[in-house]
Amino acid sequence: MKFDVIVVGAGLAGLVTTAELADAGKKVLLLDQEPEASLGGQAWWSFGGLFLVDSPEQRRMGIKDSRDLAWQDWLGSAGFDREEDEDYWGKKWAEAYVNFAAGEKREWLTGMGIRFFPVVGWAERGGYTAEGHGNSVPRFHIVWGTGPGLVKPFEERVRKAMENGLVDYRARHRVNELLKENGAVSGVRGDVLELSNAARGEASSREVIGDFEFLSSAVVVTSGGIGGNHELIKKNWPARLGAVPKNMISGVPEHVDGRMLGITEKAGGRIVNRDRMWHYTEGIKNWAPVWPMHGIRILPGPSSLWLDANGNRFPAPNFPGFDTLGTLEAIMKTGYDYSWFILTQKIIEKEFALSGSEQNPDLTGKSIKKVLARVLPGPTAPVKAFMDKGEDFVIANTLPELVEGMNKLTGDPLLKLDHIERQILARDREIENKFTKDLQITAMRGARNYLGDKLIRVAPPHKILDPKMGPLIAVRLNIVSRKTLGGLQTDLSGRVLDSSGHPVPGLYAAGEVSGFGGGGIHGYRSLEGTFVGGCLFTGRQAGRALAKDLGY
């Protein structure tokens, strides 16, 4: 059987691509190695944050944003420095994406019924100059319904196309080879895996029960990155980030293995920016893991004191929520692969959120009543569960008890009470005035100038050692793997390019496998809200361009 297009990977980028092709009347075969329970891929697990520019939500919060400010921020964060080669198409994709985020992106999504939480989040705050890394203003728009709410309309479009005979979706089909005829990609070959009742995200069987071969006019690879493959992460780890972590937890299921990158490269596609990746520094081990080494990222407000493994406070601007990769570099250059937050009960109840749809049942379940409960005293139920059951948390009424518990947790008495106490007391003395030389305290107060942060995200500045704000809390932070920033180099139509810069006939890519566009739309750093957004944009671009190439 021959199809118009074969899409490899049923994550968000694959669903968007398939939906766009089906809307154009093309017959699509959608393949994925995982069971149908995992339809939607990593996006389903996401917090559902999207990068939007000059949105109604921003304007209602008093935020003045613009396309030019967003592009300035993107360039300052990306740091494109391979513009004649590996960054050539990535930069073009970046500009197109910023224009999309400042233009029709929101209208396109709301037209499918997607709505947004009214308070806009401020991620990756930077802390450098105006032209440096970071978001100058809040731009992180949370989808009402989080990841599942974002996946739903595209899944519905694909399932409708399945009912109409335009889409043939086959789970448990693992592609091993891209077929070529006369230099053009003409289909796929692979293994049929045995049926599996593994739930979403759980490891599924790799037992082979058959094989397959399908032909098509074009193949679109939408298979994701390498976040679940620690061997590949370590192989590509850049020296600029310090030593490779000896211990790392996983922010994505293990089937996010990057295997299609090598398969596509073998068929002539070019991989660029292999050394660019995005891993979080505020990872905690999931007390109820779904996949191996399951890690959850804390989405912190700016007030926690951040210490390295030896108890030294990180210098500016390595504050919570300011510069992910800058802090990752600082951590790895200490010789250890973990760090610490020290905070109070008042800070955790106001500032700790956990990334992921399953850790935000109020937003995921679209419960206004439960969302409003976030303003009540005490941490959210998911955060409280980690405090009670998570192995990375230490809670104590006094600092000596806290430090003793921290050392007991690691089994290595690196932390000295007098050293930590001196730093906290110094920080607490700075709280007594409205002016300070401590840039973290300045940042805390600056954040509260934004109504959204003042209402639900940043605690009133207070002394950490004030007993009325206790108990004291310490959190051991692990490196948690997440995103691949490099990937298959593509032009603005999603066509995969070869080593000479020419399109490989019949071969397209979208989503993380393409570095979210061009083999690296983010450059070195992300502004956040741009990963699921990049899957949306590249899937849309590739689907529409391919439909046009094949003829309506």
Short description:
By secondary structure, the protein is of the alpha+beta class.
Tell me about this structure.
With 552 residues, the chain is of the alpha+beta class. It is built from 19 helices and 20 strands. Strands 1, 2, 5, 6, 7, 8, 19 and 20 form an 8-stranded mixed beta sheet that branches. Strands 9, 11, 12, 13, 14, 15, 16 and 17 form an 8-stranded mixed beta sheet that branches. A two-stranded antiparallel ribbon has the order 3-4. α1 (12-23) links the parallel β1 (2-8) and β2 (28-32). The mean pLDDT is 96.
Strand tally = 20
Tell me the structural class.
alpha+beta
Please count the helical segments. 19
Q: Mind summarizing the main beta sheet?
A: 8 strands, mixed
> What is the CA-based Rg, rounded?
23 Å
The low-confidence runs, each spanning 5 or more residues with pLDDT under 50, are: none
Question: How would you sum up the global shape?
Answer: globular
Mean pLDDT: 96
As a percent range, the share of helical residues equals 25-40%
Name the beta content range. Answer: 15-25%
Span between termini: 21 Å
Write the topology of this structure.
Layout: E1 2-8, H1 12-23, E2 28-32, H2 41-45, E3 49-51, H3 56-60, H4 67-78, H5 88-101, H6 105-110, E4 140-142, H7 146-163, E5 167-171, E6 173-181, E7 184-193, E8 208-221, H8 230-236, E9 249-250, H9 259-266, E10 271-272, E11 277-285, E12 295-299, E13 305-308, H10 324-332, E14 338-344, H11 345-351, E15 353-354, H12 361-364, H13 368-372, H14 381-389, E16 393-396, H15 399-410, H16 417-430, H17 439-447, H18 451-456, E17 472-484, E18 487-488, E19 495-497, E20 503-509, H19 531-550
Parallel strand pairs: 1-2, 1-8, 2-5, 8-20, 9-17
Antiparallel strand pairs: 3-4, 6-7, 7-8, 10-18, 11-12, 11-17, 12-15, 13-14, 14-17, 16-17, 19-20
Helix pairs in contact: 1-7, 1-19, 4-5
